[in-house]
Amino acid sequence: xxxxxxVRLAQLKDWSQAKGTHLYGKxxxxxxxxxxxxxxxxxxxxxxxxxxxxxxCRVELCPLYPYxxxxxxxxxxxxxxxxxxxxxxxxxxx
Length: 94
Ligand code: SF4
Fold this sequence. Notes:
Layout lengths: L3 H8 L9 H8 L6 H12 L48
The structure holds iron/sulfur cluster (SF4).
């Protein structure tokens, strides 16, 4: 048996061509993904390559859910870095 990476790469042959599956394959082969690509690839990994169909995971408690590729009200995925400049400084705890 090979490494976990080799095992997963072998599994990809059975995955669908849904959004993110090819990106996940690129990641497993050592390519660096953008933040947005990583997000889409993670959903493909989480959904097991969408072998049961291209569907909404409906996991509303997941922080990635607003960007899930098959979420009907999906927000656009960008690679912008969030601006936290308006956030207050952390307070010291005594
Ligand atoms: S949004 Fe859904 S598919 Fe994507 S990582 Fe979260 S639970 Fe998994």
